[in-house]
């Protein structure tokens, strides 16, 4: 195969259909940027899961005089009930599961509440006795929170036992939904990109139907005829994929690291180095889809 002639045909095809090529680049860029954003969001969710699940605690809320649940009789948890819970936490049964724990009384709970809601009028109406005394427990393995919940379920003086992981699961469910939504939009955009590439290749082939006819007459193989058109589609999509890769890394560098990590530093964020795993995926996806679309389009055209 004469590579110089093939490359010349590719350059000629790109020049003739410049507006369509630009359209393919832009559609590929937008669609793969959605794919990259979804991938980055999934990486960030996994990063946050690792960060927060390792810090998730189990809280044992003791009764207050305002509780009238099955284990509370409208009185504050007595000292005997507090001692019983603490003794259970120190027992040989639970000690293997617990890394550490600490107790928060009414006054400490109130101080933390006021600090948390210092700019909210609700802090003016709260009273120390309204806030639960709480045992905060950090487990060696946060996934074993069921052991604590089963141990203290129904114990007198215990209002409830809460695993923070269950609260985090709700947040991550919403974030996962956002990631899947971005991926769905990206899928639709990729379909549009494939159709546009197919249309571009067929128009390019139609504009060069005379040259194709001559090549057939002189005995050129289908492979020789098809290769320039396939390369046109791949080059167009590759440009879009490179732009999408730059945009994806830019989102991590300037938005996640440059803005969120500085202004919302309460969690862990992915780094630019971690995001570099995404560009090869985008470029590979762009090449495969465009090559497939161009191959199908030109094969069907040559059969007409």
TrEMBL record:
<protein>
    <recommendedName>
        <fullName>Cell division protein FtsX</fullName>
    </recommendedName>
</protein>
<keyword id="KW-0472">Membrane</keyword>
<dbReference type="InterPro" id="IPR004513">
    <property type="entry name" value="FtsX"/>
</dbReference>
<keyword id="KW-0131">Cell cycle</keyword>
<keyword id="KW-0132">Cell division</keyword>
<feature type="transmembrane region" description="Helical">
    <location>
        <begin position="21"/>
        <end position="45"/>
    </location>
</feature>
<feature type="transmembrane region" description="Helical">
    <location>
        <begin position="276"/>
        <end position="298"/>
    </location>
</feature>
<dbReference type="InterPro" id="IPR003838">
    <property type="entry name" value="ABC3_permease_C"/>
</dbReference>
<feature type="transmembrane region" description="Helical">
    <location>
        <begin position="177"/>
        <end position="201"/>
    </location>
</feature>
<dbReference type="Pfam" id="PF18075">
    <property type="entry name" value="FtsX_ECD"/>
</dbReference>
<dbReference type="GO" id="GO:0005886">
    <property type="term" value="C:plasma membrane"/>
</dbReference>
<dbReference type="Pfam" id="PF02687">
    <property type="entry name" value="FtsX"/>
</dbReference>
<comment type="function">
    <text>Part of the ABC transporter FtsEX involved in cellular division.</text>
</comment>
<keyword id="KW-1133">Transmembrane helix</keyword>
<feature type="domain" description="ABC3 transporter permease C-terminal">
    <location>
        <begin position="184"/>
        <end position="295"/>
    </location>
</feature>
<dbReference type="InterPro" id="IPR040690">
    <property type="entry name" value="FtsX_ECD"/>
</dbReference>
<keyword id="KW-0812">Transmembrane</keyword>
<feature type="transmembrane region" description="Helical">
    <location>
        <begin position="229"/>
        <end position="256"/>
    </location>
</feature>
<comment type="similarity">
    <text>Belongs to the ABC-4 integral membrane protein family. FtsX subfamily.</text>
</comment>
<comment type="subunit">
    <text>Forms a membrane-associated complex with FtsE.</text>
</comment>
<dbReference type="GO" id="GO:0051301">
    <property type="term" value="P:cell division"/>
</dbReference>
<keyword id="KW-1003">Cell membrane</keyword>
<dbReference type="InterPro" id="IPR047929">
    <property type="entry name" value="FtsX_actino"/>
</dbReference>
<feature type="domain" description="FtsX extracellular">
    <location>
        <begin position="57"/>
        <end position="161"/>
    </location>
</feature>
């Amino acid at each position: 195969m004469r590579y110089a002639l093939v490359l010349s045909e590719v350059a000629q095809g790109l020049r003739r259909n410049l507006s369509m090529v630009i359209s393919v680049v832009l559609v590929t860029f937008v669609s793969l940027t959605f794919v990259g954003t979804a991938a980055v969001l999934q990486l960030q969710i996994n990063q946050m899961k690792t960060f927060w699940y390792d810090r998730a605690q189990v809280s044992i809320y003791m009764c207050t005089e305002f509780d009238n649940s099955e284990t509370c009789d409208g009185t504050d948890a007595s000292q005997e009930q507090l001692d019983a819970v603490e003794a259970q936490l120190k027992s040989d049964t639970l000690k293997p599961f617990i890394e550490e724990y600490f107790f928060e009384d009414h006054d400490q709970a109130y101080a933390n509440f006021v600090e948390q809601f210092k700019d909210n009028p609700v802090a003016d109406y709260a009273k120390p006795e309204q806030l639960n005394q709480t045992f905060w427990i950090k487990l060696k393995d946060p996934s074993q929170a069921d052991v604590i919940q089963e141990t203290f379920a129904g114990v007198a003086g215990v209002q409830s036992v809460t695993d923070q992981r269950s609260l985090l699961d709700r947040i991550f469910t919403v974030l996962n939904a956002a990631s899947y939504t971005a991926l769905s939009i990206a899928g639709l955009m990729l379909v549009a990109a494939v159709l546009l590439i197919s249309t571009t290749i067929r128009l390019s082939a139609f504009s060069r139907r005379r040259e194709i006819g001559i090549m057939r007459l002189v005995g050129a193989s289908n492979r020789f005829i098809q290769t320039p058109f396939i390369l046109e589609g791949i080059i167009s999509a590759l440009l879009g994929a490179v732009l999408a890769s730059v945009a994806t890394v830019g989102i991590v560098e300037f938005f996640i690291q440059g803005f969120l990590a500085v202004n919302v530093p309460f969690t862990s964020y992915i780094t630019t180095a971690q995001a570099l795993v995404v560009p090869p995926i985008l470029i590979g996806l762009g090449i495969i889809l465009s090559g497939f679309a161009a191959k199908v389009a030109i094969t069907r055209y040559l059969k007409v």
